[in-house]
Amino acid sequence: MSKLPLFDPQQVPVVRVDRHLAAVPPEALSAAALQARFTHPPQWTPELIHERRFLDRQPAHAAVLLGLVMRDEPHVLLTQRPFHMSTHAGQIAFAGGKCDPQDRDAVHTALREAHEEVGLDASHVTVLGTLPTYHTGSAFHVTPVVALISPRMELVPNPHEVAEAFEVPLSFLMNPAHHRWHMLEHEGVQREWLSMPYQDGPHLRFIWGATAGMLRNFYRFLSA
Predict the structure, then answer these.
(1) CA-wise closest residue to 134 among 222, 34, 62
(2) Within a domain: residue 5?
(3) CA distance 111 to 119
(4) 41-83 pLDDT, tens per residue?
(5) Smallest Cα–Cα separation from 147: which of 164, 169, 167, 124?
C-alpha cells in the first residue's frame, strides 16, 4: 500500500460527466417527500462504498451530518476545513468526525460534531435516517446521517475546525450533469473519484472525494 503523492484535485483530468442520467425531480426534494422516502425506503444499491486505501492503519468509525437546510428550496450544509489542518486542509466536507466512546450511535456523533464544529443546535435538526457506511482511503468508516435543518438555525463556526460554513442547493447536487469523474494513476494503480464543483458567487466550491461520493449515494437513494 503506497501513500498518495500530494496533488491538486482540480488539476486532475475529467474523464467523463454523467449528463445521461436524470436529475432527481424537484417534487422529490420537499420535506414531505424526503421523510416519506426514509419511512418507506426503496430497494437500491449504493454506488460508492470503498475508496482504494492509501493509509495502512486500523479503521476508525466516524459520522457526518448530511444536513438539508429547508429554505424555499433545500440546501446542503457544508464546511470548508482550515488550511492549517494537518489532514484534508482546505477541503470541503460535511460537519462530522470520529466517533467517541461515549457516543450512543452515529446520529449522536454527527449531531455532537455538528454542534462542536459549526454551533448547530440539535433542536433545529430532524433526523431522517442514515445512508450506508462509506469507507475512505484514509481508513475511516463514515456513516452519513441525513437530516432536515430549520432555516431559523444560527451557526457559529469553530475557527479551529471550520474556515467557513456555506450551503449548496440540493437540486444542483442531485443533478448528475454536475457529477464529474476524475482519474489519477500512481505507481501503476488507477484511482477514480467524483467532483461536483459549484460556483457560489466569487467562490468555486470544489466538492470532491468522500463528500462527493456520499452525495452520489444520496442521489442513487432518491432516484431509485
Answers:
(1) 62
(2) no
(3) 10
(4) 999 999 988 776 665 667 889 999 999 999 999 999 999 987 6
(5) 124
